[in-house]
Amino acid sequence: MKEKNVMYADKIVAIDAAASELDTPPEVFAPVFRYLRRNGFRYITYHAGEDFYHIVSGMRAVYEAITFLCMNNGDRIGHATALGLDISQWKNSVKGKILMRCGDRLDDLLFIYHLISETHEESLSMVLPFVVEKINSLAVSIYGDYYSVSELVQAWKARLICPFHLEVLSSGHESAMYVVDDEELKSASVLSDRIKKLLLAYNSRECRRRRNDIIEVDVPDILNIDQLHVLQLLVLRIMHEKEIVIETLPTSNVRISSHLSMDTYQLWNWIKWEDEGHSIPPIVLGTDDPGIFCTNIYNEYANLYCNLTSRCKMTHVDAMKYVEKLYRNSVVYQFKKN
Ligand SMILES: [Zn+2]
User: Is the pLDDT of residue 256 over 90?
Assistant: First the structure.
């Protein structure tokens, strides 16, 4: 489009992705987003943390989208529901047990380990030995070989690298279907042989099959309810520091996502947690897809205002102040042309 339909390409202000999260993690789109970014598309908005079996997988999806797509300040995460749900309510909704793929379970534990070690979160440090023990047993059953937790975390973080380029690097194989991208090849070439081997194993058919084995996980298990909430706050803090914006989409979330009504909507929690002194990233209001959800941005603001005054028992003045704050965010964080 940039070469042949400049008239239309010029109107594109950002690239969005809204996929089935349960089958398509952020790593799938990461190379394409980075390619677009290198070629003049400044902003990204990525829908993540909306659909998940385990709430930690939802938090991880947000974190992976931010890191794998190399998001910058002003980029957005759509939904981020997993970062705002009340953990006790979520636990009750899954009735204390979850069936999930063991590969996802392993990735969730690597994410927990990485987050606690990176942020030096003291209130969670006591769970690390249990996390490590579980990682080791799951990793051996999936990869059939011993890898240290640090290697497993490195390989998880390196999933942003396009698997095709990884293969080009390992076997010299080139397919006519793909153009080799030097930038991608460069990031793949700095990996150690062990990490490359682990990544190739991760992408292999055999390993995929083993990762898809279904296991039962108790809720809560290694991390209790309060500790899961601390995890939410850690990711929110990272987003706040990086100035990654949350695009919250109420009508969509009530129609097709985690909520039966606006009663449990995560925005009320974000407002509360911010009042309690926690770092919450900038929030903007959105429609998700006005055609599908039969809404528009005016309707979303009106709905929010009514809920703030009724459900949240805010005074009209305070509710209007909050609406104004969201509106101001939408002006500040508007996707602008380069
Ligand atoms: Zn969406």
Answer: no
pLDDT at 122 over 90: yes
Per-residue DSSP letter, 248: E
Mean predicted confidence (pLDDT) in 255-260? 85
Domain CATH number, residue 10? 3.20.20.140
Q: How far apart are CA 57 and CA 47, in angstroms?
A: 14
172 C-alpha vs ligand 1 centroid, how far in Å? 38
Å from CA of 108 to ligand 1 middle: 22
Q: Is the dihedral of CA 2, 162, 155, 169 positive or negative?
A: negative
Ligand 1 mean position, distance from CA 55 (Å): 17
300 CA to middle of ligand 1, Å? 15
Q: What is the DSSP string of 33-86?
A: HHHHHHTT--EEEEEESSS-SSHHHHHHHHHHHHHHTT--TT-EEEE-GGGTS-
Ligand 1 centre and the CA of 18: distance in Å?
5
DSSP state for residue 22 in the 8-state scheme: T
In which element (H, E) is residue 104 found? helix 102-119
What's the pTM value of the predicted model, to 2 decimals? 0.95
**Ligand 1 mean position to 289 CA, how many Å?**
8
Burial class, 301, CB count within 10 angstroms (exposed 0-12 / middle 13-18 / buried 19+): middle
Parent domain of 88: 1-95+225-338
Check whether residue 75 and residue 124 sit in a common domain: no
123 and 200 share a domain? yes
Rounded average pLDDT over 267-279:
97
Q: What is the pLDDT of residue 278?
A: 98
| Both structure tokens of 51 | 């659909």
Claim to verify: residue 253 and residue 207 sit in the same structural domain: no
- Read off the pLDDT of residues 238-247 as tens digits, 9 standing for 90 and up: 999 999 999 9
